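Margin note: ligand = magnesium ion.
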Amino acid sequence: MNDADKKRLLREMIFYRRFEDRTFEAYMERKIGGFLHLYSGQEAVATGVLEKARLGRGTDNDYVITGYRDHIHAIKTGAPPREVMAELFGKETGSSRGRGGSMHIFDPSVNFMGGYALVGQPFPLAAGLALGCKHRGTDQIAICFLGDGANNQGTFHETMNMAKVWNLPVLFVCENNQYAIGTRIERTTAVVDQYKRVCAYDMEASQHDGMDIDIVMEAAEKAIDFVRSGKGPYFIEFMTYRFRGHSMSDSKGYRTKEEEAEWEKRDPIKIYSRRLIEAGIVTPEDIKAMEREIDDEIENDIVKFAEESPEPRVEDLDKYVLDDNPDPRWIGPLQQ
Amino acid sequence: MAETAYWEAIRRAHDEEMANDPMVIAMGEDIGVAGGTYKATLGLYDKYGPERVIDTPISENSYTGIGIGASMVGMRPIIEIMSINFALLALDTLINAAAKIRYMSGGRVQCPIVMRTPGGTAHQLAAQHSARLARMFMSTSGLRVVTPRGPLDAYGMLKSAVRCNDPVIIIEHEQMYNLKEDIPEEEFFRPLEGAEIVREGTDITLIGYNYSVHLCLEAARRLEADGIDAEVIDLRALKPLDRETIRKSVEKTHRVLVAEEDEAPVGVGSEIIATVNEECFYALDAQPVRIHAADVPVPYNARLEKAAIPSADDVYEGALKVMGRI
Ligand SMILES: Cc1ncc(C[n+]2csc(CCOP(=O)(O)OP(=O)(O)O)c2C)c(N)n1
Ligand SMILES: [Mg+2]
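Resulting structure:
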């Protein structure tokens, strides 16, 4: 990876942090409604893993799927940030045409197959995407990002079993931020190290620091190579921390200030900035300039686009329930 | 024409659709090597192999989810659920995912899955194997729900369901798999929408779907002996519902009865009578009647079971009541 790429990665992570900060403000201004789950603190995981995936608008890209904390996964996969922001604003120009909102960003043009609210539901959907890849005989893979709490769903066990039995090309990325809303992992989960749980299915697995993007990339590259080479599924766990509440309505009363301060020292952006400064790849001034540029882009391009975009028309309320242009040969109506 | 059993019709539709399109796969418990609980995939494992006729573990919610995920990238899975009772396990992926993904994605992603499952009572299978549940799927936006009453629709609607771009639930019936009917030997399709008038009449409209169409037909034969000319409608599709055919028939007969095998509260009958009220209330000459199961978990004891589940007798008597004869 050359210096320009490293600089780009740092810029991406700063962009993701600022993007989420701006959605927080928009939520406070009531421009965004519903539930809003921010990714701040966990940026190194999605950025690092997806940096090693095959992304873009080509025909043989990997598929990405995740839960409701999905803005950044979507953007890193290739969804235009303008469209993601417009979706949060409920606009017709949004990734999901204003029908999905924060938790349901979709962009199949880049193989981002959605954000889902039902904790654990993406496990089988991801395995299904992988089944599709395998069936077509391509070397595409499916990548599924979910939290630690999701592993207590039945779909986790059912899917790990089938993914292994059918040798599916799927990478499960566990973002272990140690909390499921306000409940700390030890209080609900018999085995705290999540990667150990899949040994029941004889699946390859490993655990890594999720706050250091270099470590994430190195581990992800190996895991992705493994899956792509046809060796079957892989479960990779990254230890991380979310800096904000679970969603907007969170008091954070379940975590101590000390714990938060400890993890903030391990801020993935701080770690990577420091590393690049020490290596002489960027200067603190470069980073300041980057931040100004990013804020300008977010405000004057992304948010502006979202603000100025039209809302969906009420006349279109029942569009997209079923196929809007069905083939009468299969649908009918019946000729008596 | 060839005399074909309901199960053979389903098997033939699988076979033809799998031969036609390599993206069509079948998934379910015991459907491969064992050939399927209802023989719906008999011999297809040998013909298409384990990658296309997939024996799944007993993990209804997740194998349905895997089918859904595969359908999002162009596959056409036909998912068998051994009994509609077990479909309750798959409601999360089916209803929270398949039925909503097209909408939530603003029309950008579709889930063309077919879920087949028998929903109905057989003989003395007791409460946990006798659910019907059509009403539950009927009330879910984003699904198509069809209820083939015989081999013709079992074959033709499965073929259409495979090609349709929406998630389709096909509700079969434990007591119909051996039902025989002559069906054309050349390929054909039956549409997923539209009710069918299976017997024309002028005095009363009897509405059924799935197995209850047969109860209505039997009742109609007996009513004929009493000089009552009943029209029988097979709804065929519970969702979307064909309101037109119901309206036209009731405007002709001025009397209506709905027969369902399910319990009544918030059921198919409630929906049909509400539809009649909305479409043609003033055409009615008599209070509508619905025939339905007792509001109890289905009992094991044969006598109690019989009392719980509607029969042709019940439909016949219900029709006499609508006619003011009793
Ligand atoms: C099936 C289901 N049950 C409960 C919820 C409510 N819920 C939303 S997020 C969440 C916690 C999930 O924690 P985790 O998987 O660790 O993800 P994180 O939020 O930490 O990223 C819960 C319980 C839900 N969305 N879905
Ligand atoms: Mg968590």
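The first strand of chain A starts at residue 63 and ends at 66.
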